[in-house]
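User: Hi! I have a protein structure encoded as tokens and I'd like to know what sequence might fold into it. I'm fairly new to this, so please keep things simple.
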């Protein structure tokens, strides 16, 4: 089911091996022939817990499916991303067919839906002392805006190596 916040159904498309399904407008992240629902199943998780839940939408995107044999990952995720470290690594290391801005935006959406596990990862797994938890919301907003927060760069190897997403405060 598509909510009002997502592109409306514009027509029908048939790809080889797929049945006739309504498709989303061309600027959509979901490829024709895939499930038109662009949300990740499961309720948003705001309670402080270790694991979250997110189905990678980039693994179903038109760009990814049309990237051919050189795409990374070589096959779409078979299982939902649950561990926050794996979720972050998935978007920062993989999906190079997408721009860094698109990858950060998707990661921001995933972490917004899994705010509790993200807070758990920051405070307990990575032992970050966060005085004001609103900084977590700032990280999520910055990611959804298409850039990687500077504070996250030293927390994972993938974040350290991530290209072209340096925030304005870093460009001095």
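Assistant: Happy to help. Inverse folding works backwards from shape to sequence: for each of the 172 positions I chose a residue that suits the local structure. Here it is:
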């Amino acid at each position: 089911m598509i909510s009002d916040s997502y592109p409306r159904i514009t027509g029908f498309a048939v790809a080889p091996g797929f049945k006739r399904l309504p498709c989303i407008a061309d600027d959509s992240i979901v490829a024709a022939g895939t499930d038109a629902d662009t949300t990740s199943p499961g309720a948003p998780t705001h309670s402080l817990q270790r694991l979250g839940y997110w189905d990678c939408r980039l693994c179903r995107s038109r760009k990814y499916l049309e990237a051919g044999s050189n795409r990374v990952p070589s096959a779409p995720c078979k299982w939902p991303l649950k561990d926050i470290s794996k979720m972050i690594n998935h978007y920062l290391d993989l999906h190079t067919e997408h721009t860094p801005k698109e990858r950060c935006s998707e990661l921001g959406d995933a972490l917004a839906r899994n705010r509790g596990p993200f807070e758990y990862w920051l405070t307990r797994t990575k032992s970050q002392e966060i005085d004001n938890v609103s900084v977590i919301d700032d990280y999520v907003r910055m990611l959804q805006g298409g850039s990687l927060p500077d504070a996250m760069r030293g927390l994972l190897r993938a974040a350290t190596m991530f290209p072209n997403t340096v925030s304005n405060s870093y460009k001095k």
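A useful reference point when you look it over: The first strand starts at residue 9 and ends at 13. Feel free to ask if any position seems puzzling.
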